[in-house]
Specification:
With about 475 residues, the chain is mainly α. The chain is built from 21 helices and eleven strands. The longest helix is centred in the N-terminal third of the chain and has 16 residues. It binds one RNA strand of 77 nucleotides through helix 5, strand 6, strand 7, helix 7 and strand 11.
Length: about 475
RNA sequence: GGCGAAUUGGUGAAGCGGCUUAACACAUCGCCCUCUCAAGGCGACAUUCACGGGUUCGAAUCCCGUAUUCGUCACCA
């Protein structure tokens, strides 16, 4: 009965930010650490003006591709549904609890219109104070208020906050936060359209759904004390709070899609693996106890520990993500890698080549999927290149030596009957000795001559093998002609 | 402006009073390996933990103040 229940409670506003995903990940890990733990998905759509079509789909898809499976949610149901706040609202859940709170003295009806509130706000902000609505309605008796409602007056329900004293709440990462009650605003709990505000719906749903661990961004840190007041009024158990510092774009700006920063789906489109993204995100603001840095989702479960979540914002570093992604790519078996990468190879290579060999050669060098096509463009079209490429100090190679090597290679290769990597290798590796040259003085020119590029995935032997005898000889001929001027 | 929080190298960070001449990783720079580029191997890279005081035999680690940054102050979440 003491199972951990954590939740991911996104608003369907469009895309999946990196910060949101990290919150979802941490909450998931916390639930999965407990063998009986449950991970709940709840859709928070109480703001009817911000609904975005298809946003829910993005949430389901992202969680699915990340492997963040949930045990209860709108799509699969569960014992404490419904899991969408707008449908919970229609069932009258929030209004029922709000009324209960009123009778417990933790809230009151308010009939002030927005102009009344605005007037106060102007005065207070002019004085440089934080806004705190001094609500005349709080002195109305419940009977009086109910009579006005019965008469058809529009109303909201606001939280009632004790005038004096302090309230605190305990956070797993920030410790105890204490604030003066006098600084707390009597915020709206139920809006005039009957919908609850985020702050209220959250408390009610977390309690009704038996949530034990609340993971969320630290932008909610200042409003958290008000939550405790509500929990206390009801006499409910307060869940564990885990507030996470923001994911930053730089020192002073939060990472946000609004500023054109990458979202999860953007990163996937750029050629990053979901697993690698999750791996990296886990490390943003959290650090493991060992020096291990590469984690699969499964490995993250035992390693994860709330105690090691940091307190200051972490800057999102795409370079580090790229490095981690490269490691993930290189760690794959060739078969898995090949099926993953085949579409990317086919974007660049249409000729009749052994794509799996190409995959093998590219696996050691690509850090992202999307950079693969341009690495392979020379297979289809032998590019025009300058003879300068043959000049390389380190290889002790120049145009003259290259020409000599190329001619020798051409002749030797022409004699190869069975064209495979071993034979090409043996043939080419026999040349340096014969020509009294270093390996690089022969193989380097050959690689340039058949690829036309300064840098290539794979060396001369691998490329020649993939290109095949006919194409290799053809390119060699072209390059020899070019060198002879 | 009030309130809350944070502050260790270019980046993520470890550290929680002596074992720290501040771990590890990315990035950067050397060297090695090598048919290029990568990958891999080796090495360099904070005399110093925002600043100023204090406590202590001893502080990045505890306390106070200053500065800076972030968050919040909505019938948005």
């Amino acid at each position: 009965m003491s199972e951990i229940r954590s939740r991911f409670a996104p608003s369907p506003t469009g895309y999946m930010h990196i910060g949101n995903l990290r919150t979802a990940l941490y909450a998931w890990l916390i639930a999965r650490k407990d063998p009986n733990g449950k991970y709940i998905l709840r859709i928070e759509d109480t703001d009817q003006t911000r609904q975005v079509e298809g946003a829910e789909e993005i949430i389901y898809n992202t969680l699915k591709t990340c492997g963040l499976d949930h045990d209860e949610g709108p799509d699969i149901g569960g014992p404490v549904g419904p899991y969408v706040q707008s449908v919970r609202m229609k069932e009258g859940i929030y209004m029922e609890y709000a009324k209960k709170l009123i009778h417990l003295g933790g809230a009151h009806y308010c009939f002030c219109n927005e102009d009344d509130v605005e007037a106060q706000r102007e005065i207070q902000t002019a004085r440089g104070e934080a806004f705190k609505f001094d609500d005349p309605c709080k002195y109305l008796s419940i009977e009086e208020a109910e009579a006005r409602i019965a008469a058809g007056e529009s109303f909201v329900i606001r939280q009632t906050i004790p005038a004096e004293g302090t309230t605190y709440f305990d956070d797993e990462v920030f410790g105890r936060i204490t604030v003066e009650n006098s600084t707390l605003d009597e915020q709206v709990l139920i809006k005039s359209d009957g919908f609850p505000t985020y702050n209220f719906a959250n408390v009610i749903d977390d309690h009704l759904m038996g949530i034990t661990d609340v993971v969320r961004g630290m932008e909610y840190l200042s409003s958290a004390p008000k939550y405790n007041l509500i929990y206390q009024a009801y006499g409910w158990d307060i869940p564990r709070y885990i507030h996470c510092p923001p994911v930053m774009k730089d020192q002073t700006h939060k990472l946000s899609k609004r500023n054109g920063d990458a979202s999860f789906e953007d990163l996937v489109a750029k050629g990053y693996l979901p697993g690698a993204i999750l791996n990296y995100i886990a490390l943003l603001g959290w650090s493991p106890e060992t020096n291990q840095e590469i984690y699969t989702l499964e490995e993250l479960i035992p390693a994860f520990n709330v105690k090691h979540i940091g307190q200051s914002g972490a800057i999102f570093d795409i370079v580090k993500l790229t490095s981690i992604n490269g490691i993930w790519l290189r760690n794959m078996s060739l078969d898995d890698y090949y099926t993953l990468v085949k579409p990317y190879i086919e974007k660049a290579v249409h000729g009749n080549y052994d794509l799996k060999k190409i995959a093998a050669v590219v696996q050691q060098r690509a850090n992202t999927l999307s950079e693969i096509p341009e690495m392979l463009d020379f297979f289809d079209a032998f590019p025009a290149y300058s003879n300068d490429l043959f000049v390389n100090k380190k290889m002790k190679s120049d145009e003259e030596i290259s020409l000599e090597s190329l001619k020798a290679a051409r002749a030797a290769l022409e004699a190869v009957d069975e064209w495979n990597e071993t034979n090409v290798h043996d043939t080419l590796m026999a040349l340096p000795e014969k020509l009294q040259r270093k390996n690089g003085q022969v193989l380097f020119p050959v690689r340039v001559a058949i690829s036309g590029k300064q840098f290539t995935p794979g060396g001369a032997i691998e490329i020649a093998d993939i290109l095949g005898k006919e194409e290799t000889l053809r390119r060699l001929d072209l390059s020899i002609k070019q060198l002879e001027g």
